[in-house]
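Mods, move this if it's the wrong board.
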Amino acid sequence: MIDSTVTSGEKSKADDTKVSDHVHRARVLVLAYGAANVRSAYSHRILAMARTLAEFGHPVALLWFTAFYRVSPNDQFTELRKLMSVFVCPTLPIPISGSVTPNRMKFASRLHAGLQVVSDALGYRRCVNVTRRIALRHQAEIIHAETALCGSVALDTGVGARVVTDLHGDIGAELRMSEAPAWLIRRRVQEEIKVIRHADCMTTASHVQRLDILARSGRPNLPIHVVPCGVDVDRFAAGSNLREATRTRLGVSARHVVCYSGGLHLWQCIDETLDLVEAMRKRNRDIFFLFLTAGDSSRWAKALARIGRQGVDWLALQLSPAQVPEHLAAADIGVLLRRDHPVNAAASPTKLGEYLAAGLPVITTRFAGDAPGILDTSGCGIVLGDVLPTPPELIALDAFVMRHAGDRDTQGRLCRQLAMRSQSWEIASRELKALYERPPLVPHESDPVRPLT
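Not the wrong board. C-alpha cells:
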C-alpha cells in the first residue's frame, strides 16, 4: 500500500527562485529511503531539495520508501503536500547503516543475518517496481535520487529518465566504522560504484567528496555540483531574541557556555567532546557545558560527572528540532569535533551552519570535512590539530572562550554573516538551480529523446 496525497496548491514564486520562461522545467521525481517520521539533517536536506525544485517551477513528486514498521503520521510532509504529490511507501527493511544488532546465540545471529539478506533483496526489488510505476505515472523526465541506494534503484527502473544522485557521505566508510557485516558493506558499495559510473550527474555536500567521486568515476566530465547542507539562517538567528531569558531560565547568566548540539552517532565524537570540555574546565571553572540532542544521553553519565555537577556545571537536554534555536542562542561557543577518518573527510556537518546562524563561534578539527576551510581565516572559530588538544591548544582555547565571551554581540553578527555566505540554504539552492538549468538535465535539441518505457 502506498500512502499518497496530491494537492494542486499554488507554488511559491519567490523572486530569487524564479526561472526564466525559456528554461525547460522538467518533471522531477525525488526518490528517498529512510525513516519518514524523523526530523533529521538527512530528511531536512531531502525535503529542502524537493521544495526548492518545486519553487523553481518544476512539477515535482516525492516518493519516500520506509521500512514498514516505521510508517506513522508524517507531519513533516504536511506543508510539502501543498506543492507536490507525496507518496510514502512501506517496504521490507533495507539495511542502510551498521546498526545491526547480532544475537549472542550463534544460530539466532546467523538466522537474523540471513533474514536481513532476504529482506534487503526483496525490499530493493519492491523499490524498483514502485519507482517505475510512479515515474511513469508522473511522466518523470528526471529522477532525483537521494543516496546511492536510491540512485541504483532509479537506474534499474529502465524508464529512460535522467538520473541525478545526491551522495550524503562515504557509505562504505560509515558502514565499516559501525562494524556492519561484510555482505552489507559490499552491497551498498556496489550500488555507489554503479551510480558513480552511470548517473547522468551528481550532487554532494562537500568539495572533498566531489574530488573523490571524480577520481573514482573515470569520468572527468561528470557534472558534480556541491550543494552544502544549508540551514535556515533566519530561524536560528531569531533565537538570539530569547538569549537572556533562556540563560536566566537555565541558570547560566554568568557562565561561559560551551555547547554540543546534534546526534549521537559514533563519528560525532561525543566521548572526545566531553573529554575536551573536561580539560577546558580544568583551566576555567566558569565554563558550563550544554549538551543538546534529540537522543538519549544517559549512557554518557559517567563522563558528564567528570565535568562537574549536573545543573551546576553541565546540563543535558533532550529537545525537538523546534526547541534548538532558542537553546543554542544561550550558548557562547559550539563544539564540532571529528577524527581523521574517511567518514569525516566527506562530511558537510549541518551543525556548523546551525552554530554560526545562532551566532556561535565554533571549535572544530582539521578533519571535519569542509568546516576547517570555512572557519580557518574567518575569525569565527578555532581549528585543532586533532580531537585531543595539545597543551598550547588548550591555552589558545581558553583565550578563545574569553575573547568571544567579552564581545558576544559583535561575534554573533560576524558568525551569522559567515553562515549567510557559506551555510545558508539560499547558497545551496543556487547550486541546485544551476544544476537543473544546464545539460545534461536540460538536453540540447540534438540530444535523443529518452522515452518513458
